[in-house]
Amino acid sequence: MAALKEGRDVRVAEIHGMAQRGGSVTCNVRMGKRVYSPTITKGTADLIIGLEPLEVLRLLGYAHKDTIVAMNSNPIVPSSAALSGVSYPPMNEVLKEISRVSKRIVTVNTIDIALKVCSPATQNSVMLGFVSALKTLPVKHETLRTTITERSPPKYRDVNLKAFDLGSSELSKM
Questions:
Q1: Range of the domain at 166
Q2: Which residue has the higher pLDDT, 10 or 173?
């Protein structure tokens, strides 16, 4: 919505998979002067945003050496893995694997920041603020903030804005 406000052509493709059963959700967003297809071709993503580190690994086929990878540093161990005794790989191994494709990796612990506003559900707003501060999106920070104000239900508006602001201020602490 923010990109549309700024006059960009936008195409979105969501792939839900088994999301209702705890599986992955992938969303392709393409924006520019003229966009003809919503899906991103393998090896062409400018930015990969991941709310879970292993999900970023799953998406590495879309990356190239200049892709920016912005990811949550806090793993979410799938219940099926926890129940079966499968261990989650150490974060340094995950980062090492990602760095084989791109050296442009930034991480943020979205849950810690979301808990500062007492709402784990705002991790996506934290991440959006963090990515906005990277200045890699072709959308202005203020347009994103305005869009959150307009699109959030009134009872969640303030907490989403606070999470967005905390996420964007996190980059300056790095």
A1: 110-174
A2: 10
